[in-house]
Amino acid sequence: MTAEITPIKTDAEIGLAEAFRALRGRLAEGAIAARREAAFRHFEAQGLPNRRVEDWKYTDLRALMHDAKPLADAPDAVAKARAKSAGGVFAAVDAQRIVFVDGVLVPELSDLTALDPGLKISSLADALGRGTPDIGAWLGNAGPAEGDVAYAINTAFMGDGAVVEVEAGARIARPLHLIFVYGTQRAAAVFSRSLVVLAAGACLTLIESHEGPDGLDYQINTALDLVVGERSRLDRIKVNAEGNAALHLSTLNATIAADANVSDFTFLTGGQVVRSQLFVRCCGTGATLSLNGASLLKDRQHGDTTLLVDHSAGGCQSRELFKSVLDGASRGVFQGKIIVRPGAQKTDARMMTRALLLSEQAEADNKPELEIFADDVQCGHGATSGALDDNLKFYLMARGIPERDAETLLIQSFVGEAIEAVAHEDMRDALTAAALHWLAGRP
After folding, report:
1. What count of other Cβ atoms lies within 10 Å of the Cβ of residue 289?
2. Of 233, 250, 352, 391, which is most buried by a Cβ count within 10 Å?
3. Highest-confidence range of 49-53, 80-84, 274-278, by mean pLDDT?
4. Secondary structure of the chain: what % helix, strand, coil (to 5)?
5. Residue 38 and residue 368: Cα distance in Å, rounded?
6. Edge to edge, what strands does the sheet with 189-198 contain?
7. Extents of the domains making up the chain
8. Do the Cβ atoms of 271 and 299 come closer than 8 Å?
9. How far apart are CA 25 and CA 195, in angstroms?
10. Can you name the residues that pair with 372 across neighbouring β-strands?
11. 5: exposed, middle or buried (C-beta count within 10 Å: 0-12, 13-18, 19+)?
């Protein structure tokens, strides 16, 4: 006799199920509704990931996500007013601003006129409401993030976001800044979804920033679908400056065509529990990929960077460098996997993660991996963690530099190696200034 085992649902899982049932009745029928339903069924079958799931071993979302907050309402005038000066690290950078408050596009705060030739920007919510065929086709494509539970939850609940289309051969001069602001005064959940499509030979610099108030345990689940055409170039910088009690899940789902060049930098200082996922597939020969990041964590912050680089075509190059500085009782997690598929010969892939622990209570978990199914490749990975070098600190102090300043110089140099990967000078300077500001706030 076989006994049936019924898994016990957590409050968060029950809350998400109730929220989806309420949302389902307000959705129009069609391909997108069917995709939402399938994504939710996937989540329902898997449940929230826990430490028994290998990819979530160090970030037990089932334990960390205590409940499911109600879906955020449309922003009111007060919330919009708070977002007028938003922009965080890049507030002073000359960029075209597209502002979302509580997950909703706010046209009066956004630069939607006088767009560069070849650039088109629209609202995902509007496109979903109209049932635009291209949107359904793009969102229906199975990307490398397919099957991930956090991404599936986002698909089920996705609300508003940006749809950015760059025509073939168009070179967009000004950076495009997608600003996501949490503005309400009650804890709620926001599910934003953006889509960026670069046609062949296009060029774009994209900034994505997330910010919100301290002391409020709101929840963010955001995703970006990225389609990069042949010979295109994309530079993306994402900054997470969420409030100190926030839960933030983000997923990059990217496919890169032949001879395209993609550079991505992630900068993390905010949030209580943060997981940044990057799923990238090089599906055309000669693609070049650079993924870099820096995490500055303190107190009891938990920051997880998990990435998958899938080399499905030959002759591609990828480089990954991630630095984390951990103070207080913070925990930094890095999980990186490079897969080289059969036939992806001449692949050149390197991955490195380094963690700097500033206190005895800090914890770093690093797990780089390689899966290689081709024989003519150059691949490598590495991971290090440790404290500040006492000899280097003594060298600086022996030359009259106070101990605190000596530590700051060493930490700045450590983080600076990752920040140097940002090509745009003004953005690189802004990130350096943000790192110094974080260092100045150390106890």
Report:
1. 23
2. 250
3. 274-278
4. 25, 35, 40
5. 31
6. 119-123, 162-166, 189-198, 219-228, 247-256, 273-282, 302-311, 331-340, 363-372
7. 66-387
8. no
9. 25
10. 340
11. exposed
Is 67 strand, coil or helix? coil
The pLDDT value recorded for residue 419 is 96
Q: Contact 47/96 with Cβ under 8 angstroms?
A: no
Measure the CA angle with vertex 95, ends 93 and 98; round to 5°. 125
Contact residues for 413 (Cβ-Cβ < 8 A; gap 6+): none
Are 246 and 271 in contact, with CB atoms under 8 Å apart? Answer: yes
Q: What is the DSSP secondary-structure string of 81-96?
A: HHTTT--GGGTTS--E
What is the 3 state secondary structure string of 321-340? EEEEEECCCCEEEEEEEEEE
CB 395 within 8 A of CB 387: no
pTM above 0.90, yes or no: yes
Sequence letter at residue 353: T
**Tens of pLDDT, residues 158-183:** 999 999 999 999 999 999 999 999 99
| CA pair distance 12, 411, nearest whole angstrom | 38
Q: How many CA atoms lie within 13 A of 401 on its CB side?
A: 14
Exposed, middle or buried: residue 196 (CB in 10 Å: 0-12, 13-18, 19+)? Answer: buried
Q: Is the dihedral of CA 249, 12, 51, 387 positive or negative?
A: positive
Each residue's pLDDT tens digit, 207-232: 999 999 999 999 999 999 999 999 99
Q: b/e map of 114-138 (b: 16 or more CB within 10 Å)?
A: eeeebbebbbbbebbeeebeebbeb
Q: How many CB atoms lie within 10 A of CB 384?
A: 11
Whether residue 155 contacts residue 36, with contact meaning beta carbons closer than 8 Å, is answered with yes
Angle subtended by helix axes 425-440 and 403-419, to nearest 10 = 150
